[in-house]
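Researcher: Good morning. I'm working through a list of sequences from a screen, and I'd like to move beyond sequence-only analysis. For each chain I'm collecting a predicted structure so we can compare shapes side by side. This is the next one on the list. No need for commentary yet; just the structure.
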Amino acid sequence: MSITEEEAARHREKMRRRKEVQDAEVASKPIVEKGLLLVNTGPGKGKSTAAFGLALRMLGTGGRVGVVQFVKGAWHAGEQDGFAAFGERVQWHSMGEGFTWETQDRARDLAAAARAWEQAKRMLADPALDLVVLDELNIALRYEMLDIAEVVATLTSRREGLHVVVTGRNAKPELIAAADCVTEMGAVKHHFAAGVRAQKGVEF
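Model: Good morning. Structure tokens for this chain:
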């Protein structure tokens, strides 16, 4: 599609004005760097996927990443094998035993969540890590496997500069209030509803 010189000139001027607005917006932000608490929640697909994408970005810039999976663990995660290529720059702990309807054992679920939380606290205290992913922590909180007040207090008092991503549906209001960034994944359409089962390389 061809454009005239006049159209090209109008476009350049429009983009010049837009850049001025964008530059002014960025310049108005006083905080250059800050360790962020991010929450990926909502009924849609992609919460953990987005968190692992951020983890890959951190690794790509030379950082180190820790991962604790709270519910997942009964299935082996393909992401774990992918991140293994980064060696000691990634600490990965799958500590869940499956969803509550799979275990059907409340005491076992509570014990698994407690072990995962202890591991998470060790990672939060590790000065070598730049990003910690707490995958499906929201699920453990939703089913009251952990104390929400303690979790929020621990996350908000973490060391300066550490980024943390929490994933899972139904994020608690207390966690949402404490977070710097909350993204809700919407469920517009999902192949599972059409009869397609979880597939290797897509869901796990």
